Structure formats: structure tokens, C-alpha cells
Amino acid sequence: DLTVAVGGSPDEVEYWRKLVEDFERREGIKVKVIRQPTDTDLRRQTLVVALVARKSDPDVFLMDVAWVSQFVESGWLEEIRGVDPSPFFRSAVTVGTKAGKVYTLPLYVDCGVLYYRKDLLEKYGCPVPKTWGDLVKCSLRVKEGGKDPYEFLWQGAQYEGLICTFLEFAVSAGGDLKDLDSPQNVRALTFMRDLIHTYRLSPPNTYTEMKEEEVRILFQNGGALFERNWPYAWALHNSEDSPVKGRVGVTLIPKFRGGRHASCLGGWHVGISRFSDRKEQALKFVKFVTSREVQIKLALDLGWNPGRKDVYKDLTTRSPHLEVVRRSCEVAVPRPRVPYYTRISEVLRRYLNSALAGSMDPQEALRKAKIEIGKIEDLYR
Ligand code: GLC
């Protein structure tokens, strides 16, 4: 059998099973779907274990754009031959290309967005927030009312997702990941901490537990007013059994006054293991999931933002949510594209998380992170 490793929310994994059946019928190739965890770090680890041991399974897997460079540089991927990369977003294709050879193709491009409860914003006369100030003001108003959920949920646990949320707050304050302890970044991190400890709008478990699915499920159960998440949450929030179905709006991530809207550039690529013993079938599978037809299906059924540019004209009229996602992607900011990125990320998330926990001053945390990351960069220079 061809083995394909996929992860994500439980519904996504179920969806993959159906998609795979379709592929099996068409191609007469049997596929075994391996279910990976939801968390990107855990997904990376399980793949690294198999690849370092040169295991022939999984043959095909998905990779977070955050660690694609590492996989390419490690020589773990088979070149994807015979697929024209030109219909895909060029910047995304570049991440998985080395010496003119394409090793990964973007299955979807992720950009952070803000979800809100349309019904509650209306009830309390709040405008759709454009600035962080708007968001805090509205949440506090709802909190004062004492009747409805006022929380703002975002990913603050010590994992890769925290880098994404921090990047968004930082860039929305005029900062970046280059000059880590800039006043703009300090302002952003202080605000994140204050959301939890001063305004008390984000729950205390933000920094211990909150990852994509924790945030998504709580919001979906009606437990919050605002939610920072990825496009995938949209389809789930509006599914038949969702308590908030039809009551959710989506917009750009707010900015600080004087700053700009920003969104973390995420997404998942598909690739073939160099150690695969089913390379021909694997290539057929990659062609299938990146085909126009399947890319349109994934966008409409899962709310994913396609990695192919040539399907967008078929989509916007059918899905206004994707219009917001498209605008968010226009202001998206990538994380550093270096093969040792995960090492940087591990240091940064540790310090960011200490600041969120209140055990380290934000400025001190960023200063220390900068020093430690500088040492890692020196090693690879
Ligand atoms: C999403 C993004 C990915 C990011 C991850 C962080 O899966 O697509 O790029 O690293 O979230 O949790």
C-alpha cells in the first residue's frame, strides 16, 4: 500500500479518508492513511523519527511551511518530477525548491484571521474591530454586561503556534522577528501578557494549553467573543452541529494604532519521502491532491486557501470567507526561512511563554531570547 501521513483536526482526517477513497477508485492504488497529531511540532517529530531511520513509510506526507527548508536541506525528499509548478504561488514553491529542483508543493496557504461573534457585536453595538483598542473596548463592554462570553482566545501555549501569534502582534505594532527586543516588540508582548493578566480577557490557560484546536473548540461551543485562528476553523464553526453556526464573522487581525494589519504566513506542503518504496504511486497521489479539481474541493469543503493561484477565480463568488483570507494573505509575514528555524523557534517560544506566564518581564524576555538566538545563528553562519 501507499502510505500517506496526514494530521489536523479530527474532521480533516476524516475528510482525507474520503478523498483517498476517491483516489483509490480512480487509480487502482491502495492507500493507507496514517493519522498524525494536530500539533505541528508533534507532526514534525514523528516524521523526523521515520526519516532519520530511512523508513520506507510514510511514502507521502504533509509538511508545515515552517519546517520545509529543514526537510529539503536534510535530503529527505524526492524530487517532484513532471508537475508544472507555475500555477502555484511562486513564493510558496520557492520554499521547497533547491538548485532548481522542486521537492514540495503548497497544498494550502494559511494566514491568521480573527473570528468574532456577529450576534454579540451587534447586541452590544460594537463595530468589527480594526485596532486592538477596538477589540479590548468591545470585550470589556460585553464583560461588564455580565451575561455573555467576552473572551478573546488565541494560541499562547509553548509551541510553534505561539511564534505565529507573537509575529502578528509584533508586526501589527510595527515590529518584526529581526530586531527582537525593539520597543515595538516589547509593546506587543506586553499587550499579550496584559490580555491575560491585566484586562483578563484571555483565560489563564492561554499560555499553558491554548493551541489551535483548544481555541477552536471553546469558541465553537460559544465560550468566547473573539478568536485568532487559521482559515480551517471557518468550515467547522459553520458545520451542522456547531452551536455558533451562522453567528460567526471573520476579519483581518487587528493592529495597533499607527501599526498595520499583519498575518502569520503558514501553510502545508506535500512531498514524497526519498526513502519511499512506492515513488511512482506517490507521485500520482501528489498530482491528485494538487490538481485543480481537488484544490477547489479542499477550499470549498474545508475552507482551505489553495496553494494554486489558478483556482481563485472559481472560488470567491462561492465563498466570502475566502475573500477575507485572501486579504489576510496579502499582508502575511513569513517566519525566518532557514534550515535551523526550529532551533530559533524553540528558544523564542520559551521566552515568550515565560513573559505570558508573568514570570519574566517582556523586555527582559525578548532581550534574552535575542542573545540566545544570536548564538545559534553564529553557529550556522
Ligand atoms: C498552522 C500553520 C502552520 C503553523 C502552525 C502553528 O498549522 O499552517 O504554518 O506553523 O499552524 O501552530
Fraction of residues in helix: 40-55%
What value does the average pLDDT take?
Answer: 96
Write down the oligomeric state. single chain
How many whole angstroms does the radius of gyration measure? 21 Å
As residue ranges, the low-confidence spans are none
Overall body shape: globular
Largest sheet: 7 strands, mixed
Distinct ligand kinds: alpha-D-glucopyranose
Distance between the termini: 42 Å
The SSE order reads EHEHEHEHEEEEHHEHHHEHEEHHHEHH
Total number of helices: 15
Query: What's the β-strand tally?
Result: 13
Structural summary, described in words:
- By secondary structure, this protein is of the alpha/beta class.
- Helices cover 46% and strands 15% of the residues.
- It has 15 helices and 13 strands.
- The chain has helices at residues 10-27, 40-52, 68-73, 90-95, 118-123, 132-145, 160-172, 183-197, 212-220, 232-237, 279-289, 292-302, 320-330, 341-357, 362-380; strands at 2-6, 31-35, 60-64, 77-78, 97-98, 101-102, 104-111, 113-117, 152-153, 226-229, 248-251, 263-273, 332-333.
- The strands form 3 sheets. Strands 1, 2, 3, 4, 7, 12 and 13 form a 7-stranded mixed beta sheet that branches.
- Strand 5 and strand 6 form a beta hairpin.
- The longest helix is centred in the last third of the chain and has 19 residues, at 362-380.
- The relative contact order is 0.17.
- The mean pLDDT is 96.
- Alpha-D-glucopyranose binds next to helix 7 and strand 12.
